[in-house]
Amino acid sequence: MTDADVVQVQLYAKPGCHLCEQAEADLARLQRRYPHSVQVLDITQDAKLMHEYGVRIPVLVVAGREYSAPLEITEIERALAAATHSPARAARQA
Question: In 15, 55, 57, 73, which residue has its Cα 20 to 30 A from 45's Cα atom?
């Protein structure tokens, strides 16, 4: 598996947010089935991010699509599966 095979994921979160912590834990649980790299972005460090995501966190971005709270593990898994099996990804692997 190459780096190109790994799905890039962004998780907009803030410290002390139990929903954010749960989303991060769920992503870790799904790591073996759906290889991905998670970039956790602390919205409290950027006023624009705080304004945009402050009341919606956690927000997960997979393959350019946003998923807002509440993030159930089934929704996270569907997002990772769709990104893993997307036609564009399959074309790159061919």
Answer: 73
pTM score: 0.86
DSSP string covering 29-88, please? HHTTTS-EEEEEEEGGG-HHHHHHHTTT-SEEEETTEEEESS--HHHHHHHHHHHHT-HH
Contact 27, 78 (CB under 8 A): no
Token pair for 51: 């304004």
In DSSP terms, which residues pair with 67 in a beta bridge? 60
Is the pLDDT at 86 greater than 70? The verdict is no
Strand order in the sheet with 65-68: 36-42, 7-13, 59-62, 65-68
- Identify the structural domains of the chain with CATH numbers, from first to last: 3-70 (3.40.30.10)
Give the residue from 91, 16, 7, 88 showing the smallest Cα distance to 58.
16
